[in-house]
Amino acid sequence: MPLRPVPSPRGLETGSLVQNVLQSLEDLKAEEIISIELAGKTTLADTMIIASGRSNVHVGAIAESVVRACKDAGIGSPRIEGVPHCDWVVVDAGDLIVHVFRPEVRKFYNLEKMWSGDRPNEAEARRS
């Protein structure tokens, strides 16, 4: 069954949610944290955060911390996928999507390349 999007509560600013989540990632020593603005690129979310954990246990702990930060910010129950394996965990908090990977899984999927900047084919098409 496909997941329905999680609506953001009224009055909650995505920017403050992003800051809370980024702080929780730093507190749990997540590695290679990046934030990608998606507004204008997709309707999935306004912001995507990608981070890495050193092990499956670390990835799971980071994801739990992200869920807690979302709940503290007023997001009822963000959707979470990827547990108990914790190779790649996704937390969907409506206007914010957080991906937490083990390093080798992150390298394989390379979401940063997919979602940031011009895709090579688009740049080529513009030059033609």
The CATH class label is Alpha Beta
Return the string of H and E elements.
HEEHEEEHHH
Morphology: globular
Number of domains: 1
- Rg, rounded, reads 15 Å
Helix content: 25-40%
Briefly summarize what is shown.
The chain is of the alpha+beta class and 128 residues long.
What is the strand and helix layout of this fold?
Layout: H1 14-27, E1 31-37, E2 47-52, H2 56-72, E3 79-81, E4 88-92, E5 96-101, H3 103-109, H4 111-115, H5 120-127
Descriptors for this entry?
single chain, 5 strands, 128 residues, alpha+beta, disordered C terminus, Beta Polymerase, domain 2, five-stranded mixed beta sheet
What does this structure look like?
The structure is a single chain. With 128 residues, the protein is of the alpha+beta class. The chain has one domain (14-127): Beta Polymerase, domain 2 (2-Layer Sandwich), CATH 3.30.460.10. 40% of the residues lie in helices and 21% in strands. The longest helix has 17 residues, at 56-72. It is globular. The relative contact order is 0.20. Mean pLDDT is 83; it is low at 1-12 and 119-128.
